[in-house]
Amino acid sequence: MSKIDVPKLWATKYRLLGQVFADVHPAIADLGLEMKELLLLSEVDEHPYPAELADVTFMPKPSVTLYLKNLEAAGHVKREIDKADLRRHRITLTPTGRKVMTKGLGLLADAFGKRLGRLTPAQQASLMHMLETMVAD
Amino acid sequence: MSKIDVPKLWATKYRLLGQVFADVHPAIADLGLEMKELLLLSEVDEHPYPAELADVTFMPKPSVTLYLKNLEAAGHVKREIDKADLRRHRITLTPTGRKVMTKGLGLLADAFGKRLGRLTPAQQASLMHMLETMVAD
DNA sequence: TGGAATTACTTTAGTCCTGAACTAGTTCAG
DNA sequence: CTGAACTAGTTCAGGACTAAAGTAATTCCA
């Protein structure tokens, strides 16, 4: 059984991400969103604090500050002081923010799904499972 | 049969890439390389022209120009006029460039392999196959 | 209790990256 | 054989991004 070529696997993964990114970028831009802003929006429900968002998205905190500022100005998120810890800002999606996020994720799903659709449903499930195994921690 | 959550699959993929990146970045920096420079080095054998490199790595051409300039200054690549088409620059790895690339890819393989190792060899092969299916074209 | 250490987030300042315009060389139609 | 259209690669100005320093609130412990 042949040993797998790890750098090649890596490069393939990287490339796939790049392809989908290139496919979807213009449509996202039409929504008035940067890809990174969409990424943030999509994580706000689960991680409603800037520091957590920076952590989970691998962005530096200053970038999160900047993008949240834009998102807030665009009316996509609301920011309030956390009752439990007055240092923290609790971020929540506004209704329009949620709408835009849904639309954006839909576009992403279309672009990615186009490629994902080349796999059988069983393969898709298996892929998801493998990625979750690898990403854990 | 449950429909798969495409945005979540995407996010997981994105996250995995980010994790490995974060793991390996310091060691690559110790080699005196940027991640993107390593990416270029790894593609030079197969795509020895700047335009192709830009295409295959999804970098803008000016960035390729810049990184190649650095790599050349560091003695990792050599640049010469292509005999067949005098507009083109043919890029080749120098011996030290090849050594650095091998080392860098090894580091990447270690970091990625650490997570990949959580899968069985059969799963790894299957993952590679699925990614290749999706990335085709 | 109070000030040293820690945590959350922002500001600033400077680096890095890239879109747009450009130069060099090639191809090809007339 | 020439000039219009094309392709390869570079330059440069300006904007995007982030490292470092700063501010504000909290926690810890002597």
What this model shows, in words?
The structure is a homodimer of 137-residue chains. In chain A, helix 3 (50-57) packs across helix 4. The model of chain A has no long low-confidence stretch (mean pLDDT 91). The first copy, chain A, is built from six helices and two strands. Chain A has a two-stranded antiparallel ribbon. The first copy, chain A, is mainly alpha-helical and 137 residues long. Chains A and B meet through helix 1, helix 2, helix 5 and helix 6 of A and helix 1, helix 5 and helix 6 of B. Chain A binds a DNA duplex (30 and 30 nucleotides) through residues 49-51, 59-66, 69, 85-89.
Could you tell me the strand content of chain A as a percent range?
A: 5-15%
Shape of chain A: globular
The SSE string of chain A, one letter per element, is HHHHEEHH
C-alpha-based Rg of chain A, rounded: 17 Å
Q: Write out the strand line-up for the largest beta sheet of chain A, numbering strands in chain order.
A: 1-2
Biggest interface pair, residues each?
A-B, 49 and 48 residues
Detail the poorly predicted runs of chain A: none
Main beta sheet of chain A: strand number and arrangement?
2 strands, antiparallel
- Portion of residues within helices of chain A: 55-70%
Q: In DSSP terms, counting alpha (H) and pi (I) runs of 4 or more, how many helices of chain A?
A: 6
Class by alpha and beta content of chain A:
mainly alpha
